[in-house]
Specification:
Creatine Amidinohydrolase, Chain A, domain 1; six-stranded mixed beta sheet; single chain; about 20% strand; Creatine Amidinohydrolase; alpha+beta
Length: about 400
């Protein structure tokens, strides 16, 4: 935790403080920004970083060491009356504080504090505002080491993805059955051998399965991969080391020598949407113009809508990427939410437009990293559906 940097940002945002709250480790953002410690966490604690002065912490007597790794004056409580009086002292003269809260649950990745706790703080005549912009600055921006870990993971993921396509094709040529689930299991083994980890996944889907954007193959129900199938691979992983960040891509292949026109036509539309969104980000960053996540979504969505497939693009254009595959920064979203957060330097996000039908789905996904004065994709970029039996 860089206390001085956080306090400088609070003053710039004209906030009196940033109030953290947790119990049972419900707020992973707090754990990462403040630094988590081993031990029980069954009682409520509060930690206030004021815009000026010394931080203040409020902890329960039976877990009084919970925040001892952090600077600041400590208050201790046992009963609910002591909790409320202690919270008043912790807030002090603060009139406006940021918390992991989002009005109407709009930025739901940040909306981690329960409504009752927000009511408790407001009852003390203290206004609660969202910490979404603070979280993005101090949680979603990458260090140079994290950016390199992303690119290193990307090189390994790209290699495994292409090997998975070859494996599927080899089985089809040999007339040997391989299912979506079996291909995923094989990729997971390759991850382990390559020093990669993932929270779950990856995903492999053929035919109707590819029409479900978040399809998850199961052993008992996954489809066999056969000649004539469209195959979607959604692959994400990070290096198996502390503080590493994810790389997340989607590629398409066809189990045949020539990609059918109906698939190629849809891929051309999502490719144009992808490339238009990437170009929009790059051009504005190079020009020094500030843009928000919703604006990027609009660019990609306009391409797909113009082609007549607007109702078939059923998810946002992209998500923040960080230590979690779905990170805490700005999402490229004007569909599920209207994400007004600005795209910051040293952040990364996916661009992944897709068009989905009951019979099949087509998606292309790249990662875009924003550096100082420039932005661009971080790995291999698919230009056409791969004919896997060519």
């Amino acid at each position: 935790m860089n206390l001085q940097e956080i306090q400088a940002e609070l003053r710039a945002e004209k906030l009196d403080g940033w109030l953290f709250f947790d119990h049972h480790r419900r707020d992973p953002i707090a754990a990462r920004i403040l630094g988590s410690r081993d031990g029980m966490n069954t009682r409520r604690w509060f930690y206030l970083i004021p815009a000026r002065g010394e931080p203040r912490k409020l902890v329960h007597r039976i877990e009084s060491a919970a925040l001892d790794h952090l600077p600041g004056k400590k208050l201790v409580y046992s009963g609910r009356d002591e909790l409320e009086s202690g919270l008043k002292k912790t807030l002090g003269r603060a009139k406006t504080v940021a918390m992991q809260y989002s009005p109407r649950n709009e930025i739901f990745y940040v909306s981690l504090v329960d409504a009752g706790t927000v009511e408790l703080v407001r009852a003390m005549k203290c206004r609660v505002v969202t910490s979404a912009d603070l979280v993005q600055k101090f949680e979603a921006t990458w260090t140079p080491q994290q950016a390199e870990s992303h690119r290193a993971a990307g090189r390994r993921v790209d290699k495994i993805t292409q090997a998975a396509f070859r494996r599927a094709a080899d089985h089809v040529r040999a007339g040997v059955n391989i299912t979506e689930f079996a291909l995923v299991q094989w990729m997971q083994g390759e991850f382990r051998a390559a020093g990669l980890v993932a929270e779950d996944g990856p995903n492999a889907s053929v035919g109707p399965s590819s029409g479900d954007p978040h399809y998850e193959p199961k052993k008992e129900s996954s489809r066999p991969i056969r000649a004539g199938d469209i195959l979607l691979l959604d692959v994400w992983a990070k290096l198996e080391r502390p503080d590493s960040v994810y790389y997340d891509i989607t590629w398409m292949g066809f189990l045949g020598p020539v990609v059918p026109e109906r698939y190629a036509k849809i891929f051309a539309v999502v490719r144009e949407a992808r490339d238009s969104a990437v170009a929009f980000v790059r051009e504005n960053v190079r020009a020094g113009k500030s843009i928000a996540g919703f604006e990027v979504d609009r660019v990609a969505r306009a391409v797909i809508r113009k082609a007549g497939y607007g109702k078939n693009f059923v998810h946002r254009t992209g998500h923040s990427i960080g230590r979690d595959v779905h990170g805490a920064g700005a999402n490229m979203d004007d569909l599920e939410i209207h994400d007004v957060r600005r795209i910051l330097p040293h952040t990364c996000f996916s661009i992944e437009p897709g068009i989905y039908f009951p019979e099949f789905g087509i998606r292309t996904e790249v990662n875009v990293y924003v550096d100082d004065g420039d932005a661009g994709t971080t790995g291999a970029v698919q230009q056409e559906i791969l004919p896997l039996l060519a």
